[in-house]
Amino acid sequence: MFASCLLFFAINSDAGSKVGYIQMKVVMQSPQSIDVGKRLMVEFKPRNAELEKFRKQIQDKEAALEKESAGLSQRDLISKRQEIEYLKIDFDRKKNRQHEDFLLRKQEELNNFQNNINAAVTALGQSEGYDLILYNTGGYIGAKVDVTDKVLKLLK
């Protein structure tokens, strides 16, 4: 609502005002945005592989225990089950830690991407003499004020 009022006043205050609009949905689905996701996947791939390896080891220990459980004493059986439970707890802890680390890195990357968008918008506004550039406002936005493609070019 505020942005719409601002747009109205900007247009009416000076007939020569230059206004632009950016479709953030398009920007967030752009190759530049997708690259952010790909970088995170590459960064976390070794940790994912390590977790998967650890999970497989636990499964193998459980399978081995099932096979040899008949020949074990009650004390050894309890001890091995307890060891597996400790491994599962450790696995869950590592998995949660990785998830938290991923969320933090994702937020950092999104913040960096948003800063790059802001810098590109500022550069576009200054270089092409825009008086106002809006992001994701409601209502009707005409095609001649859409500068999304220009911002995407500056993000490359």
Question: Any overview of this molecule?
Answer:
76% of the residues lie in helices and 5% in strands. It is mainly α and 156 residues long. A two-stranded parallel sheet has the order 1-2. The chain starts with a helix and ends with a helix. The model has no long low-confidence stretch (mean pLDDT 86).
Notable features of this structure?
rod-shaped; 156 residues; two-stranded parallel ribbon; 2 strands; mainly alpha
User: Which sheet architecture does the biggest sheet show?
Assistant: 2 strands, parallel
Write down the secondary-structure element order. HEHHHEH
Structural class, please?
mainly alpha
Q: What is the distance, rounded to the nearest whole angstrom, between the alpha carbons of the first and last residues?
A: 32 Å
Task: Give the strand order of the largest sheet, numbering strands 1, 2, ... along the chain.
Answer: 1-2
Number of extended strands: 2
Q: Considering DSSP H and I runs of 4 or more, what fraction of the residues is helical?
A: over 70%
**Quaternary status:** single chain
Report strand %: 5-15%
Tell the overall outline: rod-shaped
Which consecutive residue ranges, at least 5 long each, have pLDDT under 50? none
Work out the radius of gyration: 27 Å
**With helices defined by DSSP (H or I, 4 residues minimum), what is the helix count?**
5
Mean pLDDT figure: 86
